[in-house]
Write a structure and sequence with these properties.
By secondary structure, the chain is α/β, with parallel strands linked by helices.
Length: 705
Amino acid sequence: MTEPIVPSIEALLKHPDVSKAVDNVNPELTDRRKNQPPVCDAFAHSVCCLKDASEYVFDVDPEAARQLPDIIGNRVQVVDGCEPPVDPDLVARYSRQRRIGVVFSGGPAPGGHNVIAGLFDAIKRANADSCLFGFLLGPDGIIEGEAVELTRETVDAYRNLGGFTMIRTGRAKIDTPQKMALSRQACKALGLDALVIVGGDDSNTNAAFLAQALFRDSIQVIGVPKTIDGDIQVRDRKGQVLCAMSFGFHTAARAFSENISNLCTDCSSDVKYWHICKVMGRVASHLALEVALQTHANITLIGEDLADYVDKRRIAAAGNKDGIDYTAYGMTLRHLSRMICDGIVRRAAVGKNYGVLVIPEGVLEFINEIQTFIIKLNTIIAEYNETHDTGFHAAFPLLEDKLEYLRRMGRRSREENVLPVWNARDDDLFKDIPAFFQEGLLTERDSHGNFQFSLVETDKIIMGLVRDYLDILKEKGLYKLGIDAGYYRKTMQKAGLDPDFYGPALFADDADCGCLLIKPSIISLKTLKQALVRGAVMGDDDAVPPAVEKIYWKSVPKFKTQTHFYGYDGRGSNPTRFDCNYTYNLGQTVFALVANGVTGQMAAIQNLEKNFDQWTPIGIPIAPLMHLEERKGRLALVIEKSVVDTSSVAFRVVEAMREKWLAAEAGDDNYRRPGPIRFTGKSEEDRPLTLVLNALNGFHKGQPE
């Protein structure tokens, strides 16, 4: 027999099929890079001009007016294409040679590369000799003067791709006079006409201060709203929507939803797990809301809804005694765990001892008792850092060290009869919290002074309480797994037993869930035998038939969970077509604002909730959006984050569908399969479902306004 010829590895690596298999580039990537996003009508003209939109007015914070005098008077501006004949002077100004810098700030968000691509194309279209520079590794690149000129080859390599890989990103802040001076020096050294900052609320706040600092140098600064959390949404004083959603949100939500939908399929296949899915969203639950719409998960917590919770039973009870129960306002951890347990128990009763629970990352921030602790601990840590040479976490590295410091504060409040931030009652309540959660509440704050919810095992805290209460309900006989009537009859008949004879002794008469429920009094083999004896189906000395014992064990639920966190995977996804189109037009908007000589504006696209032909590029003044807020124990000017509006159509629809999606009844679940993020075919959705629904805010009696 002839021995087969084994090719050398060198020969194998030269084979075209092997080369294709191990190539970094696949057909999908090639298609993405070649895709040319459509542009808004304004950009179909050779020259764009700006029109003030005086109908949009903001409430201006006096401190913002004091600190940002040169840009506080900015107005909302609509970008429009200039119809011929165009003023030659305008054409000359629009098309003059420019040098523009761009920087990514904060965590990545899908679509960032297309902001650069849109800006690059607009620059080169206006003047082929204009240059675009990318500052490396975020704001540190500006401070340190680290920048590279972006060529067409570089930009083309990243078109329509996820990440911020082209120039990387970082979380530094230009928040001191020294950093501001170094930034000015770097911009002037490059001869920049404008600087573009792509980032979240803090980064756009930074953009406003840079615009003010560079105003006298005639260096324009434009911000671009980015965050997968979706918490940058801009409305004016009247509630008119200027920016419905920051870029990256749709892609992250779709990426999370695909994975969570897969878990819905998994749990309904092996019917033994509850999948606990924590999704990003520290101060807002927009992602959780979109995931609920995309997947129809059985239970989805919305933090803003919990914050608005009112216990009407407590209010009524207090009213009967002519009193007021202030604890009736706001959700507690204990009550939240009871709500989750109710859903789990109801599904188990119909034989569904599985499901999917979606929890926003920052849900604990909406729980009153936890928020009180966070505020107090933030203040304690900030005050300590301000008055001592060593930081709080360096001075007290161990949990016990931190707890002892708090205990001393509590004792001092008792002994000296004073009212410090941390009093004896706080200390007593804090002792009741599990040690791992105490440690979580005392973790080091992030660079913005915020409590780092992502470092706290939110799911572990909530599900720990859920497990404890489920054990109590099991002991009371209230947490049972429903038995299919057909399965019961078949099992009994197979053993030669009459199911109708044993049934009254085993099952509750009032079960109205489509399944047979073992009586609450039966919680063990001993109580099972007692029930059978009381039901006169067997004597004291008889053994429980194996078939009956089998039915009993089938009714005992085993609560098993799998935990998942969705965050970094979603923000690194390749963008949806919506985000590709959105960000490319944001880049085009940036150039239109720069070419028309404005500064301190945020590039945005209005009417995102509508069809693409209705999208309107605009510039939003950043300074009027800023208000005083506590950061690191001090008041600072920041852009307010936008949370879920519980009166919005999107939330009201999810609220109305909760019972259906819980599916605590016999029959199939109502899971939705959103499918993967695609760049081919015609079935890809063209915008977030949240925006689709919120576009109906003016819908009344079946007719739009």
